[in-house]
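Quick one:
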Amino acid sequence: MKYPLKKKLYDSWNMHPTCVECHADLKKTPRYYWFDLEGMLLGPEGGSAISDSLHVGMMWSLGFHGDEAKDEYMCIDIVDDDHESMIDFKFCSMKCMRNWINRILDDCERKFQKKLEKIHKNSETQNADELEA
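Output:
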């Protein structure tokens, strides 16, 4: 991989929605997963505003989009700090960094799966109720 990553790679959704890793067409997948890193210019109350006391806030989120009719969507804020201009985590080794990142991904995956199971259970219940009516 060549660094730094260029906008073309991480902003591919705007032109053609494909997976950053394998280039699968995301329009043909039942759902897609994303992570988002944001820096936002914020005013004194945490909202976007022009004022004398502007500062940068940082956010890191993971989520998924699926069937909108079934409300298949979830976002988990990993970092949401409206008083820091940089997200900076330090590790003693690449192994520890990888373990930490994988633990976050595994935890989010469990939460996403739980949400999808709840959505599908509600959908099955609704379909059964409609058949009885």
